[in-house]
């Protein structure tokens, strides 16, 4: 039974439960609503929730657990001999899954009968021929162990899905029955329903924790895996980044320092540009501009923040890069080789960060109490003296926090550097040279036909871990500063 | 307490007229004007880049929406058809007829020109087979004039919009210098015209050597399915989480933990969410690679903090008196929230959600990691449910793929894709602004 | 530069420092001050009293053009400081405020050290040629602000760390440091406890020797204690202006009498 149908049936059961529960409650009170503890619809909701929530939860857990279980069981049956030199059990399992999926869709298209697909005597070569004819993507010839495993995979999944259907329906019916049984006049339906809803709300709020947990676990496990294949000291202190995808094993040098330097250098360029511009814009908008100018300019500047980063990436690659080459390239000052460089990416990232810096600083400058400004004006200070000597020093912690948040954005930015900064990892001081960053290398190591078990792919997780720790540290510190600052004036 | 002796020693008050500025005041006022000018300059820099960006996008993106077509009225008689069908090189025969017809048109306008058939193929592709297919499918058209609009190769587009010039042209199997003479001749004869490129709106990604055939339609559909997932998941989860935190959460360490997590997740780089998606959804759960479902899940996790933060602000903006009023007539806390607070906060919540969705729509990096790169978008999904699991791309990822290709003709497509993407974003923001204006309530 | 009007500096108490004629103030559509004429004398404490919203603070803020910082505020009429119209186009409010200092309702020390708080005004007005002179100015201001003894050992501590009464005296010292000719005080004691209030009132009395002080106050007792002249404002009108003793014992206008006997306010 397709999943959609199962969901529809369970929902229908819940809906039926709602009406049945409501009717039963009314009946138990002899049709007099005043005799009921709660409004009739609460009895209905109680039954509906009891039918829906346990069944839905079971369905979700099953859907997550079954592939893991099936995968592990089938994987264990694969003979050691079937694993080719230079391959791994995981790669072979991927092949098994592809074959199984190919068989599934071949059956669905009617190119293969269900029995043929299940036939343990089937000839692997014939099957792969049939699948290729059917337009299924089979990368290599199917071997006996793969076909066996694929058939086992399909069989287990089919059985699992069948059991799941029954289990979920049983859970829904049981919940329905239980809910209906407790439906009677004195039952405190509203309190029960409200408790249930509260639990659901809490579960929704907990997703934030689960997400963080997911991030941390996926980074930690894969990073750990990477450090088993590649020494951590070489990663953290290596000054060369030269992954090799062709020659497997040991040929790659994966030192993070050039990437870290590229990341920091580009961020510095971006901040040197965006902080003065953003800060002065914020000062002008919050202290000098008339409300009308402010109401026009502020949203216009914020448009810059709403533009997707891919647009900035393209702008860097196709507009700013060639423009800079025109000035600093071989026709001009001759210090720039190609359009992709630290300067290109940094400048464009700076444009992106202007509204970020300006709106954060704007908030912070506005939080400085007017009484301080009055005090300064009352002494005969000009507006700029007041701003420079009273407002800005008072706002300084907050502004530092804002700049740190902007720095964290710059470090984590991906598309601008992927398109604008170049691909070469190097330790250089020339801002007109191409360099690359942590984020750009995460993208390049994880896209393409990388084998997820190789150090060249796993290094992306170690890079991601570094990035995560770096930005998290900056954020926590910045938020701490900003909060302290807010408390000061509240 | 006051020291009287000090006061005796004080300098006499400066006696100056207020109507004359002293030197120091002049200097200070100059500093004032300078400082103010820095602010204006900063704002002008910001606005300048906004204008440059807009102009660049529009100017570079417009060519993607037009294409050069050769419009030729052409008549094929029954005899010619039979004759061609009997030949060994059938499509070649059609091509010869076409070339003859075109030469005729040129001659009518007094232009004499020799060109080799290969040039036609370079400019217009395999027209022979196109013609043959047309007449085989519509035998009724035989013997009467039919006007064909044949799209020219993207290099010809480039020649017309200035990307390819005679000086910069590198002769290749795609385009020779002499071909441009033919293009000029056709143009003089009025046989070339610019037409709207529907294929760009509706088509799918093409191969690396066919920039002319590339379209963004398939990835728009991919984005659509992703946004559907994001909307369906993030709105209820975000609202539920916000209601819990704002209205019910007790002050304890678990609540604090959730709060800290939300504010930090809001600032985690998007690429890290891509890593999460790759490791958890694809490696661990074995969900299909490149599927909009997975993209939607990743973007949901990414936008949830934004939506929760804006939803909480809307809930906070509903004055406590409303809650007190509801509680005062005997409603439970839950009833007060769901019957009174939530409806009042709804416009704000929807506005925040739309802005969150718009952010998600423009996100690229995490999609690349879960395999939603442009070249996957080869066609439309077979059905509604297939739309969630069949490999597809999304608009920004498609744009990235085009930008990363070496053929410069794809750059037009990338800019054009950006226009399409920005149109969607503008529409979403417009809806958000209208919602805010229409339902905004000041307490 | 020696102006004709300042020739007799040593002349007794009654020299007129500020003369306001026909002052009208509009806040947007709100007519906040209606045709007010007042003469503020030199070396005198003048108190503005009246119920909340009567316009006394607004009028005070006209005297050093603090209302300029509020965009919707419009001032008409003339206010002469030593015979010069302070609303003249040629007048720079910055230069004016150096002569007419102001102390606010809530103590508002800058988030800087005590020393820098006092030194701020002298620095921006270029009053000290070197550090030693600045030190002297700071010490003199703090002494005259009657707070020197309490802070002399911690001049580098932040001004925000002082108690409320100390902060307000610091703000007064800060205003004195620029050597203004007139000192405007907008309810300077409303945020202070009775002991701090008493200290500040004592200070105001001493300041009278050198300055013309204008104080807005909510407390009639305070007006009676510290001022020589009192102006009573009501609904934007100046109802009565005269010697403090007269106003409090024998007011001419029935509205003044109602107010000081507690029937309106």
From TrEMBL, chain A:
Keywords: Cell inner membrane, Cell membrane, Membrane, Phosphate transport, Transmembrane, Transmembrane helix, Transport
Family matches, as InterPro entries: MetI-like, MetI-like_sf, Phosphate_PstC, PstC_N
Transmembrane segments: 41-65, 161-180, 200-221, 259-285, 305-328, 340-358, 457-482
CDD domains for the chain: TM_PBP2 (cd06261)
Membrane topology: Multi-pass membrane protein
MF annotations from Gene Ontology: phosphate transmembrane transporter activity
Subcellular location, principal: membrane
Top-level taxonomic group: Bacteria
ABC transmembrane type-1 domain mapped to chain residues: 260-478
One of the GO biological process terms: phosphate ion transport
A single cellular component GO annotation: plasma membrane
Location of this chain's protein in the cell: Cell inner membrane; Cell membrane
Family as reported in the entry's similarity comment: Belongs to the binding-protein-dependent transport system permease family. CysTW subfamily.
Function comment: Part of the binding-protein-dependent transport system for phosphate; probably responsible for the translocation of the substrate across the membrane.
PANTHER family to which the protein is assigned, alphabetical: PHOSPHATE TRANSPORT SYSTEM PERMEASE, PHOSPHATE TRANSPORT SYSTEM PERMEASE PROTEIN
Record-given protein name: Phosphate transport system permease protein
Gene name tied to this protein: pstC
UniProtKB/TrEMBL annotation, chain B:
Keywords associated with the record: Cell membrane, Membrane, Transmembrane, Transmembrane helix, Transport
Annotated Gene3D superfamilies: MetI-like (1.10.3720.10)
Membrane-crossing segments per the record: 37-58, 224-245, 265-287, 293-315, 336-358, 414-435
BP term (GO), one: phosphate ion transmembrane transport
GO cellular component: plasma membrane
Membrane topology: Multi-pass membrane protein
Domain spans labelled ABC transmembrane type-1: 220-432
UniProt-listed CDD domains: TM_PBP2
Gene Ontology MF terms: phosphate transmembrane transporter activity
Main location per the UniProt record: membrane
Compartments reported by the entry: Cell inner membrane; Cell membrane
Any Pfam family: BPD_transp_1
Entry-linked NCBIfam families: 3a0107s02c (TIGR00974)
PANTHER family in UniProt: PHOSPHATE TRANSPORT SYSTEM PERMEASE PROTEIN PSTA, PHOSPHATE TRANSPORT SYSTEM PERMEASE PROTEIN PSTA-RELATED
Family membership noted in the UniProt record: Belongs to the binding-protein-dependent transport system permease family. CysTW subfamily.
UniProt protein name: Phosphate transport system permease protein PstA
Species of provenance: Thetidibacter halocola
Automatic annotation (TrEMBL), chain C:
Keyword Membrane: no
SUPFAM superfamilies: P-loop containing nucleoside triphosphate hydrolases
Signal peptide location: none
Keyword Transport: yes
Any one of the GO BP annotations: phosphate ion transmembrane transport
Keywords: ATP-binding, Nucleotide-binding, Phosphate transport, Transport
GO molecular function terms attached to this record: ATP binding; ATP hydrolysis activity; phosphate transmembrane transporter activity
Cellular component terms per the entry's GO annotation: membrane
Domain ABC transporter: 11-260
Database matches in InterPro entries: AAA+_ATPase, ABC_transporter-like_ATP-bd, ABC_transporter-like_CS, P-loop_NTPase, PstB-like
PANTHER family named among the record's database cross-references: ABC TRANSPORTER I FAMILY MEMBER 17
NCBIfam families, per database record: 3a0107s01c2
Name this protein carries in UniProt: Phosphate ABC transporter ATP-binding protein
Species of the source: Thetidibacter halocola
